[in-house]
Design brief:
Strand 1 and strand 2 form a beta hairpin. The chain is an alpha+beta fold. Strands 1, 2, 3, 4, 6, 7, 8, 9 and 10 form a nine-stranded antiparallel sheet that branches. Strands 5-11 form a two-stranded antiparallel ribbon. The protein has a single domain, classed as Sandwich (Jelly Rolls), CATH 2.60.120. It contains five helices and eleven strands; from the N terminus they run E-E-H-E-H-H-E-H-E-E-E-E-E-E-E-H. The longest helix is centred in the middle third of the chain and has 11 residues.
Protein backbone atom coordinates (compact mmCIF):
# COMPACT_ATOMS: atom_id res chain seq x y z
CA UNK A 1 0.00 0.00 0.00
CA UNK A 2 1.25 3.47 -0.85
CA UNK A 3 1.89 5.49 2.29
CA UNK A 4 3.08 8.95 3.29
CA UNK A 5 4.59 9.73 6.67
CA UNK A 6 5.44 13.30 7.58
CA UNK A 7 8.12 14.07 10.15
CA UNK A 8 9.74 17.13 11.63
CA UNK A 9 13.32 17.09 10.33
CA UNK A 10 14.70 16.81 13.88
CA UNK A 11 12.32 14.07 15.06
CA UNK A 12 12.07 10.55 13.65
CA UNK A 13 8.60 9.97 15.12
CA UNK A 14 6.00 10.49 12.39
CA UNK A 15 3.65 13.42 13.02
CA UNK A 16 1.17 12.26 10.40
CA UNK A 17 0.51 9.11 8.37
CA UNK A 18 -1.63 9.14 5.22
CA UNK A 19 -2.68 5.95 3.42
CA UNK A 20 -5.36 7.28 1.05
CA UNK A 21 -3.83 7.62 -2.42
CA UNK A 22 -5.66 10.83 -3.38
CA UNK A 23 -4.79 12.46 -0.04
CA UNK A 24 -1.12 11.48 -0.53
CA UNK A 25 -1.11 12.96 -4.04
CA UNK A 26 -2.72 16.19 -2.82
CA UNK A 27 -0.29 16.59 0.08
CA UNK A 28 2.75 15.93 -2.12
CA UNK A 29 1.45 18.30 -4.80
CA UNK A 30 1.63 20.99 -2.11
CA UNK A 31 5.43 20.57 -2.00
CA UNK A 32 5.81 20.31 -5.79
CA UNK A 33 6.02 16.51 -5.98
CA UNK A 34 3.94 14.74 -8.63
CA UNK A 35 2.37 11.46 -7.43
CA UNK A 36 0.11 9.49 -9.77
CA UNK A 37 -1.23 6.02 -10.39
CA UNK A 38 -0.67 4.59 -13.87
CA UNK A 39 -2.30 1.60 -15.56
CA UNK A 40 -0.75 -0.62 -18.24
CA UNK A 41 -2.50 -0.82 -21.61
CA UNK A 42 -1.90 -4.58 -21.70
CA UNK A 43 -1.33 -7.49 -19.34
CA UNK A 44 2.20 -7.59 -17.95
CA UNK A 45 4.18 -10.80 -17.61
CA UNK A 46 7.42 -11.59 -15.79
CA UNK A 47 9.41 -12.24 -18.95
CA UNK A 48 8.70 -8.94 -20.69
CA UNK A 49 11.64 -7.04 -22.18
CA UNK A 50 12.35 -3.45 -21.15
CA UNK A 51 10.97 -2.23 -24.49
CA UNK A 52 7.75 -4.22 -23.94
CA UNK A 53 7.39 -2.74 -20.45
CA UNK A 54 7.75 0.81 -21.75
CA UNK A 55 5.32 0.00 -24.59
CA UNK A 56 2.73 -1.15 -22.03
CA UNK A 57 2.78 2.37 -20.55
CA UNK A 58 3.53 4.19 -23.83
CA UNK A 59 0.64 6.67 -23.68
CA UNK A 60 1.51 7.82 -20.13
CA UNK A 61 5.26 7.83 -20.83
CA UNK A 62 4.84 9.84 -24.04
CA UNK A 63 2.56 12.39 -22.34
CA UNK A 64 5.09 12.94 -19.55
CA UNK A 65 8.01 13.08 -22.01
CA UNK A 66 6.20 15.78 -23.99
CA UNK A 67 5.16 17.76 -20.91
CA UNK A 68 8.68 17.91 -19.41
CA UNK A 69 10.80 17.52 -22.56
CA UNK A 70 12.25 14.23 -21.34
CA UNK A 71 14.72 12.82 -23.84
CA UNK A 72 14.80 9.18 -22.82
CA UNK A 73 13.15 6.45 -20.77
CA UNK A 74 14.61 3.20 -19.51
CA UNK A 75 13.80 0.40 -17.09
CA UNK A 76 15.82 -0.41 -13.98
CA UNK A 77 15.23 -3.57 -11.95
CA UNK A 78 16.81 -4.89 -8.78
CA UNK A 79 16.24 -8.19 -7.02
CA UNK A 80 17.60 -9.68 -3.80
CA UNK A 81 20.10 -11.64 -5.92
CA UNK A 82 21.74 -8.53 -7.44
CA UNK A 83 25.51 -8.71 -6.67
CA UNK A 84 25.84 -4.93 -6.08
CA UNK A 85 22.71 -4.40 -4.01
CA UNK A 86 24.62 -3.24 -0.88
CA UNK A 87 26.70 -0.68 -2.78
CA UNK A 88 23.69 0.61 -4.71
CA UNK A 89 21.62 0.95 -1.55
CA UNK A 90 24.40 2.90 0.18
CA UNK A 91 24.70 5.24 -2.82
CA UNK A 92 20.99 6.08 -2.77
CA UNK A 93 20.68 6.42 1.04
CA UNK A 94 22.81 9.57 1.27
CA UNK A 95 20.85 12.79 0.94
CA UNK A 96 21.34 14.33 -2.49
CA UNK A 97 19.84 16.51 -5.20
CA UNK A 98 19.78 16.36 -8.99
CA UNK A 99 19.78 19.16 -11.53
CA UNK A 100 17.09 17.10 -13.29
CA UNK A 101 13.76 15.66 -12.16
CA UNK A 102 13.95 12.24 -10.55
CA UNK A 103 11.02 10.39 -12.08
CA UNK A 104 10.26 6.80 -11.18
CA UNK A 105 7.28 4.72 -12.14
CA UNK A 106 7.03 1.47 -10.18
CA UNK A 107 6.10 -1.25 -12.65
CA UNK A 108 6.58 -3.81 -9.88
CA UNK A 109 7.75 -4.01 -6.28
CA UNK A 110 8.25 -1.06 -3.96
CA UNK A 111 10.71 1.51 -2.68
CA UNK A 112 10.88 4.30 -0.10
CA UNK A 113 11.59 7.90 -1.09
CA UNK A 114 12.36 10.54 1.52
CA UNK A 115 12.07 14.21 0.63
CA UNK A 116 13.64 16.81 2.92
CA UNK A 117 12.06 20.20 2.49
CA UNK A 118 12.64 22.93 5.05
CA UNK A 119 11.87 21.64 8.53
CA UNK A 120 9.88 18.64 7.25
CA UNK A 121 10.77 15.18 5.95
CA UNK A 122 8.25 13.28 3.84
CA UNK A 123 8.58 9.48 3.66
CA UNK A 124 6.76 8.03 0.66
CA UNK A 125 6.42 4.27 0.25
CA UNK A 126 5.87 3.74 -3.46
CA UNK A 127 4.47 0.51 -4.82
CA UNK A 128 3.42 -1.06 -8.10
CA UNK A 129 1.48 1.47 -10.16
CA UNK A 130 2.90 4.58 -8.44
CA UNK A 131 4.66 7.36 -10.31
CA UNK A 132 6.70 9.87 -8.30
CA UNK A 133 8.43 12.91 -9.75
CA UNK A 134 10.83 14.69 -7.42
CA UNK A 135 11.58 18.20 -8.73
CA UNK A 136 15.11 19.23 -9.65
CA UNK A 137 17.28 20.50 -6.79
CA UNK A 138 15.05 18.90 -4.12
CA UNK A 139 16.95 17.20 -1.30
CA UNK A 140 15.98 13.55 -0.99
CA UNK A 141 17.20 9.97 -0.60
CA UNK A 142 15.88 6.53 -1.55
CA UNK A 143 15.83 3.25 0.35
CA UNK A 144 15.29 0.10 -1.66
CA UNK A 145 15.77 -2.17 1.37
CA UNK A 146 18.31 -4.86 2.17
CA UNK A 147 16.70 -7.24 -0.31
CA UNK A 148 15.38 -4.99 -3.07
CA UNK A 149 12.61 -6.09 -5.35
CA UNK A 150 11.46 -3.46 -7.80
CA UNK A 151 11.21 -2.62 -11.47
CA UNK A 152 10.89 1.04 -12.47
CA UNK A 153 10.60 3.11 -15.61
CA UNK A 154 12.90 6.14 -15.34
CA UNK A 155 12.64 9.29 -17.45
CA UNK A 156 15.46 11.77 -18.10
CA UNK A 157 15.83 15.23 -19.66
CA UNK A 158 19.62 14.98 -19.89
CA UNK A 159 21.77 12.40 -21.65
CA UNK A 160 23.76 11.85 -18.42
CA UNK A 161 20.70 10.40 -16.67
CA UNK A 162 21.01 9.92 -12.91
CA UNK A 163 23.68 12.27 -11.53
CA UNK A 164 23.62 12.99 -7.79
CA UNK A 165 25.01 16.00 -5.93
CA UNK A 166 25.45 14.80 -2.34
CA UNK A 167 24.69 17.30 0.45
CA UNK A 168 27.00 15.66 3.00
CA UNK A 169 24.14 15.64 5.54
CA UNK A 170 23.65 12.20 7.12
CA UNK A 171 19.97 12.91 7.87
CA UNK A 172 18.92 9.74 6.06
CA UNK A 173 20.65 7.56 8.65
CA UNK A 174 18.32 8.90 11.38
CA UNK A 175 15.01 8.00 9.73
CA UNK A 176 13.28 4.61 9.52
CA UNK A 177 14.74 2.25 6.94
CA UNK A 178 12.64 0.52 4.29
CA UNK A 179 12.21 -2.45 6.63
CA UNK A 180 11.26 -0.29 9.64
CA UNK A 181 8.83 1.90 7.66
CA UNK A 182 6.49 -0.92 6.69
Amino acid sequence: MSMLRIYNANDTKAKETIENFDAIATRLHGIGVRFERWQANRKLSDGMSNDEIIAAYRESVDALMKEYSFQSADVVALTPEHPDKKALRAKFLDEHTHSDFEVRFFVDGKGLFYIHQGDKVYGIMCERGDLISVPANTTHWFDMGENPRFKCIRLFTTPEGWVAKYTGDKIGSRFPTFEQFQ
